[in-house]
UniProtKB/TrEMBL annotation:
Cofactor: Mg(2+)
UniProt key word Metal-binding: yes
InterPro entries in alphabetical order: Aldolase_TIM (IPR013785), ThiamineP_synth_sf (IPR036206), ThiamineP_synth_TenI (IPR022998), TMP_synthase (IPR034291)
Catalytic activity: 2-(2-carboxy-4-methylthiazol-5-yl)ethyl phosphate + 4-amino-2-methyl-5-(diphosphooxymethyl)pyrimidine + 2 H(+) = thiamine phosphate + CO2 + diphosphate; 4-methyl-5-(2-phosphooxyethyl)-thiazole + 4-amino-2-methyl-5-(diphosphooxymethyl)pyrimidine + H(+) = thiamine phosphate + diphosphate; 2-[(2R,5Z)-2-carboxy-4-methylthiazol-5(2H)-ylidene]ethyl phosphate + 4-amino-2-methyl-5-(diphosphooxymethyl)pyrimidine + 2 H(+) = thiamine phosphate + CO2 + diphosphate
Organism per entry: Salipaludibacillus keqinensis
GO cellular component: cytoplasm
Listed name of the protein: Thiamine-phosphate synthase
Binding site for 4-amino-2-methyl-5-(diphosphooxymethyl)pyrimidine: 45-49, 80, 119, 148
Length: 219
């Protein structure tokens, strides 16, 4: 997958976007990812951070394993934060936030052929990310989350509606506290996709959970 995919294909790829690192699961992450893919996730982000996370070679080795799982199933592989690793691996994309490397610098580093996702919380940040060359926006936290200690204030699905009203047309994924039950209102607010950590990573069956999200997000 590359940025040369058209906008509709990118939106489709963002529809059920699973995010995880090894500390979000209590089983081998490649197994959880394989199960989530069998249930219907459409994109994966490797987000290896926090206490006890893998670093250096161990992180890179895990990234290679996960990338191979994604390649085997034609699922896009996005790396969180680590631009150097994304470039070294020739990942499908990189996701950065407001506290990471700037979006326009990152776009220059990765070139045009890699997907750039940018986290935004406000309309101003969204407009800046568009100007800086983002391919999609991660808007949140929409609801309360236990998966990010330094999360901004909860903004609710209304923030997505407000961004759409203000003319932001870039693909948007919602993030933060997303559950199957809350997915219909996220979709109605104008998001192209849902980004999920715990509701898939901690589910008794990641495959079943992923399939429930897929059913709601289809068409
Ligand atoms: C799809 C998506 N949206 C938002 C985020 C959050 O990114 P960021 O604000 O940089 O926080 P960290 O994930 O790095 O803790 C994301 N990772 N993915
Ligand atoms: C990475 C991130 N950015 C904003 S909220 C969040 C965590 C989302 O995790 P969960 O789906 O478990 O609430
Ligand atoms: Mg980040």
């Amino acid at each position: 997958m590359s940025k040369h995919i058209d906008n509709d294909t990118l939106k489709q790829a963002l529809s059920v976007y699973f995010i995880s690192g090894t500390t979000n699961v209590n089983r081998p992450l490649p197994n959880v990812l394989t199960e989530a893919i069998s249930g219907g996730i459409t994109l994966f982000q490797f987000r290896e951070k926090g206490s006890g996370c893998l670093t250096n070679k161990a992180k890179r080795d895990m990234a290679e394993k996960l990338f191979q799982v994604c390649k085997d199933h034609q699922i896009g592989f996005i790396i969180n934060d680590d631009v150097e690793l994304a470039i070294a691996m020739n990942a499908d994309g990189i996701h950065i936030g407001q506290k990471d490397a700037g979006a326009s610098i990152t776009r220059k580093m990765i070139g045009e052929n890699m997907i750039l996702g940018v986290s935004v919380h406000t309309i101003e940040e969204a407009k800046q990310a568009v100007a800086d060359g983002a391919d999609y926006l991660g808007v949140g936290p929409i609801f309360q989350t236990n998966s990010k200690q330094d999360a901004e204030e909860v903004c609710g699905p209304e923030r997505i509606m407000d961004m759409r009203k203000s003319g932001i047309n870039l693909p948007i994924v919602a993030i933060g506290g997303i559950t199957v039950e809350k997915t219909p209102e996220i979709k109605r607010a104008g998001a192209d996709g849902v980004s999920i950590i715990s509701a898939i990573a901690s589910a008794p069956s990641p495959s079943y959970a992923a399939n429930q999200f897929k059913e709601i997000m289809k068409d």
